[in-house]
Amino acid sequence: MHHLIYSSSATVPFTDAALQELLTTARANNEQLQVTGVLLYHEGQFMQLLEGEASVIKSLYQLIEQDTRHTSIFKLADKPIEARSFSEWAMAFKPIDAEAFAQLKGYQSPDALDTAPQGLSGADALLLNIMRTFMVSEEE
Known about the structure:
- The chain has 140 residues and is of the alpha+beta class.
- The protein contains 4 helices and 5 strands.
- The chain has a 5-stranded mixed sheet with strand order 4-1-3-2-5, with helices on both faces.
- A hairpin with a 2-residue loop joins strand 2 (36-42) and strand 3 (45-52).
- The longest helix has 18 residues, at 16-33.
- The model is unreliable at 100-117 and 136-140 (pLDDT under 50).
């Protein structure tokens, strides 16, 4: 199992509809690839964590790097892990409209996450906890 975390900047601001379309597409693709993770978006900035088989994550990241919807892509972590941290999410996302996103297949409230990092370095655990803290604190 492998995880990769990156940040990037949107080339144009994303509307609620564009974010929902991105999420729907990501979930469908990730489910086929057996990739899980979380995507955060705030004021033009993305942060994403992807989990899956190393070769799949590497190929997916190469596609992400070529995506013209964002720029300034910076890899924050890229390493083997013992277990998934977001095993229930084909692609978690901080919802803009909680009611609409609650109806999507694979949605789980951020406060239901298991927050104990498994087999991560201190730096990776810190990044993961920052992402989880953002997801949970914004939900409250």
